[in-house]
Amino acid sequence: SLEKNISLASPTKVELTCKLDENTNLKNPQVTWKKGSETISHTSKTKNSWTIQVTISDRSQLGSYTCIVKDEKEISATFHLHVPKVEGREKPIITYEGDRAVMVCKTEHNSKAWTWYMTNGTELVAINKILHADKFQIKRPSANVNRLEILKLTKKDGGEYWCEASFDLGSSKTRFELRVLSITAPLKPFIAVVAEVAILVVTIVLYEVYSKKKGKGREKEFDQIEQL
Hints:
The chain is an alpha+beta fold.
């Protein structure tokens, strides 16, 4: 099985072709085209290739188109037609209280509009930069790039954020995870090490004091024995 992804931002006509290698020896190949589970007919045919033309006018025409070649064995190839995906950041963004966080979204096609969301429980709430100008800044360096800056971070700002790009054929989203740590967080490992060292030092001092007392006690015993 072979698969190919095709991004489409606006209505268009697409030509999809399945072509066998010249060295492929199939005596009587039977070819079927399908969109999902629905069988469709091909529009042109040569000795080793089969082509369909698809008119994409709205999102309902997007999806998976598969050609299945049957002979002694079955070969298939699938074309996945979809709205352009939005690229973000897979790993969590980790920063500290009082700092700023930056999130950047990109697409391979120019987006008509961008929308940023933050999660409020289970719901997505659109970020309005006009109402929250002192907290959020949204910038668009180019038609296929968008940038969100969150200022003066607090613990409450941690959570999920979503970036959505809109196209003529629909929209797509990507997710960001923001973690806001307290300023003292980096000091915790150091404090733990200092505490361990302090405990070790106290233990050693107590042991030495105990050893000295025990030694003096033995000296007194020896003195009493000599006197006897």
